[in-house]
Amino acid sequence: MTVTALLQAVAVVLAIEGLLYALAPGAMRRALATLLAAPEERLRTGGLVAAAIGIAVAWALRGAA
Fold first, then answer.
1. Beta carbons of 14 and 22 less than 8 angstroms apart
2. Please, are residues 31 and 24 in contact by the beta-carbon 8 Å criterion?
3. What's the domain count of the chain?
4. DSSP secondary structure letters along 1-63
5. How far from 35 is each of 23, 39, 43, 54, CA to CA, in Å?
6. pLDDT, tens only, 10-50
7. Which residues contact 62 (CB under 8 A, 6 or more apart)?
8. pTM of the entire structure?
9. Which residues are listed as membrane-spanning (predicted)?
10. 5: pLDDT confidence band, cut at 50, 70 and 90?
């Protein structure tokens, strides 16, 4: 993976997140409130699972290219 590809991926994530806030600000507020109320261990576990899935998908796409 090149630095350019990594930056493009970050740009796509920012664009999607921005669209979510633009299209459904109320839902995003509720999601953030839920995150604030969640225990740290649950957030940590969720973050690790999301990171593992992201790495697996990136690895699979790398092999498919």
1. no
2. no
3. 1
4. --HHHHHHHHHHHHHHHHHHHHH-HHHHHHHHHHHHHS-HHHHHHHHHHHHHHHHHHHHHHHH
5. 20, 8, 8, 20
6. 999 999 999 999 999 999 999 999 999 999 999 999 999 99
7. 1
8. 0.69
9. 43-61
10. confident
Report CA-CA distances (Å) from 52 to 10, 22, 30, 46.
17, 28, 25, 10
Give pLDDT, residue 59: 87
Q: What token pair was written down for 6?
A: 């990594």
| Domain range enclosing 33 | 3-64
Q: Are 62 and 1 in contact (CB under 8 A)?
A: yes
* Chain position carrying tokens 């999301």: 50
In whole angstroms, how far apart are CA 9 and each of 14, 16, 58?
9, 11, 10
